[in-house]
Amino acid sequence: MILEKLKELSKDTAVYGVSTMIGRFLGFLLVPVYTNVFTPAELGNFTNVYAYLAFLNVVYIYGMDAAFMKYTSLAEKEKKKTTFSTPYLFVTGSTSFFSILFYIFLLPISSGIGLPIEYSNLLIYVIFILLFDTLALIPFSSLRLERKTQKFAFIKITNIVINLTLNIILILVYEFGIEAIFISNLIASIFSFVALLPEIIRRLQLRIDTTVLKKMLKFGIPYLAAAFTSTVVQVIDVPIVLKLTDTATLGIYRMNYKLGIFMMLFVQMFNFAWQPFFLENAKDKNAKELFAKVFTLFLIISAVSWAFLSLFVEDIVQIEIAGRTLLGREFLEGLSIVPIILLAYLFNGLYMNFTAGIYIEEKTKYFPLVTIAGAAVNVAVNFSLIPILGIMGAAWATLASYVVMAGGLFIVSQKFYKIDYEYSKILKIFLLIGLTAFIYYFYYDVITIGIKSLMFLGFILLLFILKVIERDELIRTIKSFRNSD
After folding, report:
1. Taking the alpha carbons of 206, 210, 216, 221 in that order, is the dihedral positive or negative?
2. In degrees rounded to 5, what are phi and psi of residue 479?
3. Rounded to an integer, what distance in angstroms lies between the CA atom of residue 376 and that of residue 318?
4. Domain count, the chain
5. What is the DSSP string of 90-121?
6. Is the distance from CB of 217 to CB of 362 less than 8 angstroms?
7. What is the mean pLDDT of the chain?
8. CA 180 centroid distance within chain
9. Helix, strand, coil shares of the chain as percentages rounded to 5?
10. Which pLDDT band, with edges at 50, 70 and 90, does 480 fall under?
11. How sure is the predictor about 75, in pLDDT bands with cuts at 50, 70 and 90?
12. Residue 479 pLDDT more than 60?
């Protein structure tokens, strides 16, 4: 029974993963373009604007997408239009209001975030990107909940292809400069909204149910605080690095930070499938045992991915194509932060796993406490370590905050929804990660690609030797997947 459930989760994860991996990887292809065309300072300004865009994305939706998924998953069939229309109409109204305010105060906002006056026009694009992205969030959540994975994947991938293509054309052919990034993003966002219109029209009824709205706001507002502070963890390093260093250093830091994308992709595609999966299986008598197995499997895959990427990312990005490296030469000095960022994303994945108990027991009020703690640690460590370690200090701050968040949510989740995780296996995995990281950084200057290959092979073998991966269980799982339709 558990294997069947794991197959169900893996299939959805695979579909979301294909769309997310392809889409994000296509987006990642822009890093060589950006780092070989723009200066670190130009990319520092671009990064600064997108950091605040991340904050505003959370504010504009204020947890209503999560509330929609929660209450629509529980609603009877005849009530599903109501649970879609109520949050969608309310969010449409509030988003329009926020956008008008943003436009009115555009110049003070530009000055407030430290954006040079010549870049202030970029915020016009930001206003419309926020508008269309927000109006697409609940329809995208609806596709996830109904497991319309193929349509979800098609829209997401097409969005990224449009974005990528326009970036390349506008930057390399028409030499638009940094503005090209925002124009491309906006057109791609408009496409997603238009592609979702049939889904919106099919579900929409022009009425807001105040009772449903109150329930959703009660659920969503605490989620807003959690999502906002979670975003603080993700991007607060941007203004702090800018404050303590300069735009060029910020550009180098964030372009190397982007190399953590592959771990982020795995975490993100897992979470797309994980949230509807645990909601649907919460009442199953074997739910907790199932969730424990999912956790171990997630951690094994994440750890192997971390080991491979940490060991070989430096060699990969220095591959030359037409005389240019995959990461611009001016940015290579920041590569040492990548293993730390990858590990931070791994802990973010553990945090996502622990959300199950919080959702199931409706204890979302604890999200803000956990994420505020993570955000506070992030800010404190950034200010403490950046003056000493530079961008390595910012990387350590990111890792510290995700460790605190994962640990905090684990404690809270176990209090209300206790799961007996496979602690022995978990401990062995982290010991292997720690050993690999120690060898990598201690012998950083002398490790060759041959030694890295042996280290990675050793990592895999030790997973079997220490019985983290058990042969019989692996064979049963493989046979089960082969026999699946």
Report:
1. positive
2. -65, -40
3. 36
4. 1
5. HHHHHHHHHHHHHHHTHHHHHHHTT--GGGTT
6. no
7. 89
8. 24
9. 85, 0, 15
10. very low
11. confident
12. no
Residue 342 to residue 257: CA distance in whole angstroms: 9
Residue with tokens 């603080």: 232
Print the domain residue range for 283. 2-482
Express each pLDDT in 282-326 by its tens digit.
888 888 998 999 999 999 999 999 999 999 999 999 888 777 788
65: burial class by Cβ within 10 Å (0-12, 13-18, 19+)? buried
- pLDDT tens across 160-170, in order? 889 999 999 99
Paired strand residues for 320: 325
Burial class of 195 by CB neighbour count within 10 A (0 to 12, 13 to 18, 19+): middle
Averaged pLDDT for residues 384-410? 96
Are 366 and 373 in contact by the 8 Å Cβ rule? The answer is no
* 205: number of Cβ within 10 Å: 13
What confidence tens digit (pLDDT) does each residue in 2-39 have?
556 555 555 655 555 566 566 666 667 788 899 999 99
With a CB cutoff of 8 Å and minimum separation 6, the contacts of 143 are 149, 151, 152, 199
Strands (E), 158-239: none
Q: Measured between alpha carbons, how far is 41 from 239 in angstroms, rounded to an integer?
A: 14
Q: Which of 304, 273, 188 is nearest to 18 (CA)?
A: 273
Q: Tokens 């180098």 sit at which residue?
A: 252
Are the C-beta atoms of 240 and 379 separated by less than 8 Å?
yes
Q: Angle at Cα 112 formed by Cα 111 and Cα 115, nearest 5°?
A: 50
| Residue 77 in this model has a pLDDT that exceeds 50 | yes
Show the tokens assigned to 209: 């149910």
The Cα 224–Cα 59 span in angstroms is 7
Whether residue 249 contacts residue 40, with contact meaning beta carbons closer than 8 Å, is answered with yes
| Contact in structure between 469 and 424 (CB atoms under 8 Å) | no
Q: Say which DSSP state 178 is in.
A: T
C-alpha triplet 31, 35, 39: angle, nearest 5°: 145
